[in-house]
Give the backbone structure.
Amino acid sequence: MSENLLEVRDVRKSFRVPHAGKNKLCALDGITLDLKRGETLGLVGESGCGKSTLARTLMMLERPDEGTVRFDGVDPFSLKGADLLKFRRRVQMVFQDPYASLNSRMSAAEIIAEPWRSHKGIVQNRQDRDMRVRGLLDLVGLGAKAAGKYPQEFSGGQRQRIGIARALALNPDVIVCDEPVSALDLSVQAQVLNLLNDLQEQLQISYIFISHDLSVVRHVADRVAVMYLGRIIENGPTERVFERSSHPYTAALMSAAPTLDGAQRAQRILLKGEVPSPIDPPSGCRFRTRCWKATDVCATTTPAAAVDPEFADHTALCHHPLLLEGSGRETVPA
Amino acid sequence: MTAFVGHDAHPADVDTHNADPVLDVDGLTVEVRTIGGTLRAVTGVSFQARRGETLALLGESGCGKSMTATALVGLLDPVADIVGGTALLAGRQDRVDLLSMDRRKRREMAGTELAIVFQDALTALNPLYTVGTQLAEPFRIHQGLSARKAKRKAVDLMARVGIPQPESRLNSYPHQFSGGMRQRLLIAMAVALNPSVLIADEPTTALDVTVQAQIMALLRDLRTEYRMAVVLITHDLALVAEEADRVAIMYAGHIVETGTVAEVFAHPKHPYTQGLLSSVPVNARRGDALTSIGGSPPDLHSIPQGCVYQARCPLAAEVCRTTRPALAPVGGDRKAACHFPEEVSPRMRGERTDV
């Protein structure tokens, strides 16, 4: 139970983009992470930080330029044919937009049953298929009578439930959820988060949960990885990362997000400027151009992962981590 | 029916200008003609915006908050009609009704009295003109300035909203700016002529949190500097908690609760407000079930008789099915449209019914 289901080691991926000369857009710059069975890993970061490229790499939709991915000890990128198909069964995805990700010409039952057309041998016959579709619809709280309806007859939350049922159809070990609730209204968002939670308890699925909403990640994730310009700059147990952020960027991100009890926040760290272009990222530490603690060393040397002395599994990619210098809650004059 | 007569909850802020609202919306009703018949998107919405204060219109998609904003600025879709209500704007001359004035008069007020910042800055800016031209436009049209003088004003404005090297960026096109910078440009255009009311329709929804924090700080500063009334339209409860002084919560085209943010969020008097607040994953530990509001908002084509929230309300009783509660005072500056405002409590849990 405790061994890693998924191990990603130093994965790099860059893309050629027009008008950038020889420079490539560096989307993933040495990503290392682990995922255990039944665990939820929250992936947070701002637009363009590489969250979705990482998700696509784990789905084998992108091949990394360097580095290794191991799933249950096997490198999925070395697989071919039937073995590859078998692997794909084990990692499924739930998409952000419940309107664009369902084919409006297929009924709910057809959408959920479609994966079985590529992955043969899971359902025996029509009766078996219909029974399983009903089972999945029940599982996601829609009920069997939804089977014959089309996506446009459902609300956003219900559509997302169909998307989840489709992901579950192949009994995956890992579901990559790319912003699964950001298109939903608050009251419906809570319903879908509860469903994902219940399913994890029942089925022991692992989630990679990508979101820009920190309060959602805090609620669902066991561990959090914070990304900035293609790197995971902080990684650790959710409560540690939220309560005692070690990387200045994490601290700034946490303090920038509005909260209901915002008045209780000590001081807001207002970052200057915006995220630099991933086509020509800063040397050394990627965050140094916006960091109030940056020194000369940050421009010359890429920081190694600083490990929290109390928690070996809480790391930060920083020359001047906040924790090691004491307070852990220090703030800056804006 | 005039809303919000009573004591201001921020006595420290009150001065002679503050006593009178600069924008007084009363009974605004908007109908939309659709294939399925006419529906009411906004029903009897009343609120007041005061100088130097931020009023949040809070609600989920389809509740009518953006429709309210577009009705006020005169940008309603042709299929939508204002069928009732007044919106009195205390302009520099006298109070005028935005909803009944003619188009020419309204154009004079656009930007000088009332301005709007949209959510999507890329579609709100014209891609074919440089930002310098677009920022200079209000000065040329309303103040009749020469092109050169207007451009100079545009540079000042860009510097004011925090765009680095404004002179050199004057001749750039909107697509050459980042999302946050585009939003700054929109805000610059909106405040160019020092309006008394600024409507911000989801101004930061498309932005990342660190940039959102920058933009909200800018809006706050400008509000104080120009003594504007800001109407912030949003679905984000946390943003309201941090940025707004007062809040009006909308559901299915109706305002269901109003009051100061501090009071409404601490002690909601409408079950919908309570439901929203407990749907926010805050302090909820991993694994705890979130309280969600079962069901979904009513179809605007067939809003039930009685309370608009009855189908999802844990307090619903017989009277809620027959009589629609009016937005009535519930103590102090607050109002709620509920038959049982005193029974709303944090312990009241929405059932965990499914969608």
Notes: Residues 254-282+292-343 of chain B form one domain. Chain B touches chain A through 46 residues (CB under 8 Å). The mean pLDDT of chain B is 87. The first strand of chain B starts at residue 23 and ends at 34.
